[in-house]
Amino acid sequence: MALIRSVYDPFTEFGRFFDDAFLTRFSGGSANANRDVSARQPFRPKVDIHEDANNTVTATFELPGLKKDDVSIQLHNNRLTVSGETNVSSEREEDGFAVRERSFGQFERTLRLAEGTKEEDIKANMQDGLLTITFPKAPAEQAPKRIAVL
């Protein structure tokens, strides 16, 4: 049995609800117009971030249909950026109709890492459409020190 982790983002659903409602209301709308809105929305992979007792942070990105060659991970100025392009299509027969679904577009998600995180401290693994990245937790901030003026 496979364990699937996901993060529910209510703001995505609210945004889609309002887009559908306003597009239908102000464009003379139809049900097809609502589908066009979701087709134009960019692909934004969901991410689940977890910290364990060993001070390790694990970020799991849902990237269904993608292979590790389709994904780029870059570290720059303590920002970890996961980007890529998806082009997934499926066809099936349903109740005598041919159903074709396509999802395509570029995506990018950025995480801020602890100051001084080194590239060799970051580990990435891609399996079954899940990209798992682990890195050390940010060290506790030091208390401010007072410096005497001479």
Automatic annotation (TrEMBL):
Domain annotation SHSP: ranges: 38-150
Keywords: Stress response
Transmembrane regions listed in the UniProt entry: none
Family of the protein in this entry: Belongs to the small heat shock protein (HSP20) family.
Pfam families from the UniProt entry: HSP20
Source superkingdom: Eukaryota
Keyword Thylakoid: no
CS domain mapped to chain residues: 42-150
The protein's name: HSP20-like chaperone
Keyword Manganese: no
